[in-house]
Q: What sequence folds into this?
């Protein structure tokens, strides 16, 4: 694995298989020369369709059981069988919109690891927590449910910075990444409105081992710019 990680979280985009195949092909071609570990997290349905050689594929979610009566869920062995090597666990949209609880996330991460999938485990505080000065406490609590094992990478994504165009400052990121690494010494990615124009500054922040990128990962030239900043 390269030292730094560039991860694309497509969320519920793009809207068709045709567009997904095309976008993945374009990212695969553009990012090929960058000396980074490049991860792509598309929606489940696109996983078996994407033809990429330079990107490693992962899923945005996973269930904790391996098979059975769990309508609508997708198991770790299913993901492996279509070529996924990673999973995202605990994204704030799943915590806050789908109501996933810390205990659920722990089970998901453990099931993934047991089946040989690697995990990007997302943590992040809400604006009200930061304003109340509770951000370290919130992150410490979320980290209690993270399996502290090889194969797990943390993504620090302050909820107030996701999709809002607002970044955490380098100082806020630096101190939080250091705090996380004290609890669990692993790679820590930053996520939250990483764009072409701010990638350089964020990439040079102490303790940033990579990025988890949402919106900008749907725009090949901008995503490339972010990768370039990370690879410098
Ligand atoms: P964003 O999303 O880059 O669009 O802010 C990041 C994420 O949610 O992973």
A:
């Amino acid at each position: 694995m390269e030292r730094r990680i560039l991860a694309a979280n497509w969320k519920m985009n793009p809207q068709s298989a045709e567009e997904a195949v095309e976008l993945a092909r374009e990212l695969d071609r553009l990012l090929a020369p960058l000396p980074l570990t490049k991860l792509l997290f598309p929606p489940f349905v696109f996983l078996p369709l994407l033809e990429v050689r330079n990107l490693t594929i992962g899923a945005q979610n996973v269930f904790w059981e391996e098979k059975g009566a769990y309508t609508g869920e997708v198991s770790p062995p299913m993901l492996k069988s279509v070529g996924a090597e990673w999973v995202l666990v605990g994204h704030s949209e799943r915590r806050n919109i789908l109501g996933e609880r810390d205990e659920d996330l722990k089970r998901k991460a453990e099931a993934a690891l047991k089946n040989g999938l690697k995990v990007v485990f997302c943590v992040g505080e809400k604006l009200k927590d930061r304003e109340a000065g509770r951000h370290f406490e919130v992150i410490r609590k979320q980290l209690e449910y993270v399996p502290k094992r090889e194969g797990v990478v943390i993504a620090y994504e302050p909820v107030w910075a996701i999709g809002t165009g607002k970044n955490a400052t380098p100082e806020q990121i630096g101190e939080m990444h250091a705090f996380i690494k004290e609890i669990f010494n692993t790679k820590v990615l930053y996520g939250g409105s990483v764009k072409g124009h701010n990638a350089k500054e964020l990439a040079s922040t102490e303790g940033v081992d990579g990025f988890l990128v949402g919106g900008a990962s749907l725009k090949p030239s901008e995503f490339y710019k972010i990768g370039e900043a990370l690879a410098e």
Summary: Residues 8 and 175 are 24 Å apart (CA to CA). The chain has a mean pLDDT of 97.
